[in-house]
Amino acid sequence: MVDNSSEEAKELGKLRDDIDAIDEKIGALISQRAVCAQSVAEVKGRYSDGSDPIFYRPEREAQVLRKAMARNQGPLSDEEYARLFREIMSACLALENPIKVAFLGPEGTFTHEAALKHFGASAKVAPMTAIDEVFREVESGACQFGVVPVENSTEGVVTHTLDSFMSSNLNICGEVVLRIHHNLMVSDVTKTDSITRIYSHAQSLAQCRKWLDAHYPNAERIAVPSNAEAAKRMRSEWNAAAIAGEAAAKLYGLTVLADKIEDMPDNSTRFLIVGQQDVGPSGHDKTSVVIAVKNEPGALHDILEPFHRLGVDLTRVESRPSRTGNWNYVFFIDFDGHVETPKVQTALEEVSRRAADVKILGSYPKGVL
C-alpha cells in the first residue's frame, strides 16, 4: 500500500504558503485603501467651508460595488464578492466618519440584517420600536440614515412605511432587496415532539402558511411584533417554537429545527434607506414619487400616460387613501431612471400639470444584490 501522506503534506504546504503570500498582499492593499479613506476625510474637511462634509455618498458606493462585481472572476458568487467589498468599504468609511443608522428593531430582525447588508458591520446601528420612530430619529439628526421595510414579494406593501412618507420630508437614498428565508427554531428546553404553539410576526406566519398546515396543523400560531421578539419569547417555553431568520437563531442561541420553510422559494423583501441628503446619478437608478390625483374620471390614466409615451418604465404603482378627504387617493409610483435625466424631467413636468400634487421622494441607486 502506497503512503501518500508525505505527498499530500507537501502539496498542502505549498498551497498554504501561497495563501499566506496572497494574504500579505491583500492586507497591505487594505491598509493602503484605509489611508486613502483618511486622506479623503482630510480633503473634505479642508474644503467644507464650515459646513459638515458629506462622507457617505450612496451613488459612489453603488458604483464601486458594481465595478467590483464586474471584475469578479469567480469562484465566489457576485453576492459574496460584493459583501466582502462592502465590509472593506464600511471599515474604511468608519475611519472618516462612522455612520449611525436607525432601523426597525429589535436586533435579529430582517430589517437589522438589511441594515448590515447595506452599510456593513462597521456602521453604528440603533434599533427602533416602530417605523415612525425610525423616521423621527433621522429627521432629528440623531441618525444619518434609517432602514425600513416597504414591500414583500409574497405579502405585498408595508402600509406604515408608505404612510410615513406622507408627513415626512426625508429622501429615499437607497434600497436593499433581501432574500427572506424563514426557519423553525427551538431552544434547549423545547420538547420538539410536543410543540403546541409557534410564535412569529404575522407576515412570517402568512409566508409559511402551507408548510405549517402540513407539519404543525394543530399548533397555535401566535403573532408578535417581530421575529426577534418571537425568538426571545419562546426560549423559556418547553412547548413552543419560533419562526425567524438565521440571525435571530445566532443572536439568541437557538437551534434551527427546519430551515427554508417559506412557501415561496423566491420570497424577498425590499427595504428603503431614508436620509436627508439628495443622491446623485449612479448610472443605474430608480425614482420614487407620490402623486395626488384630481377627483375626476380618467385621472389615473392622465398621470400614467406621460411615463408610457416617454418610455419611462414603471416598476410599482400603489394606491393609499389620502388624508385630505374620504375616497381621495394618492399613488406611490416607482420607476427606472434618475430625476436629473431629461426624459424623467419631461415626464414629471407633464404629470405635475395634470395632478393635484407631486412629491418626489428621491432618486437612488438600484439595490446591488
From TrEMBL:
Reactions performed catalytically: chorismate = prephenate; prephenate + H(+) = 3-phenylpyruvate + CO2 + H2O
SUPFAM superfamilies: ACT-like, Chorismate mutase II, Periplasmic binding protein-like II
Occurrences of domain Prephenate dehydratase (ranges): 100-276
GO MF annotation terms: chorismate mutase activity; prephenate dehydratase activity
Pfam families per record: ACT, CM_2, PDT
Site feature Essential for prephenate dehydratase activity, where: 269
Keywords, alphabetical: Amino-acid biosynthesis, Aromatic amino acid biosynthesis, Cytoplasm, Isomerase, Lyase, Multifunctional enzyme, Phenylalanine biosynthesis
GO biological process: chorismate metabolic process; L-phenylalanine biosynthetic process
UniProt pathway: Amino-acid biosynthesis; L-phenylalanine biosynthesis; phenylpyruvate from prephenate: step 1/1; Metabolic intermediate biosynthesis; prephenate biosynthesis; prephenate from chorismate: step 1/1
Protein name stated in the entry: Bifunctional chorismate mutase/prephenate dehydratase
Function recorded in the entry: Catalyzes the Claisen rearrangement of chorismate to prephenate and the decarboxylation/dehydration of prephenate to phenylpyruvate.
Chorismate mutase domain segment(s): 6-100
Places the protein is found: Cytoplasm
Xref: InterPro entries: ACT-like_dom_sf, ACT_dom, Chor_mutase/pphenate_deHydtase, Chorismate_II_sf, CM_dom_sf, CM_II_prokaryot, G/b/e-P-prot_chorismate_mutase, Preph_deHydtase
PANTHER family found in the cross-reference section: PREPHENATE DEHYDRATASE P PROTEIN, PREPHENATE DEHYDRATASE-RELATED
CDD domains per the UniProt record, alphabetical: ACT_CM-PDT (cd04905), PBP2_PDT_1 (cd13630)
Species annotation: Marinagarivorans cellulosilyticus
Main location: cytoplasm
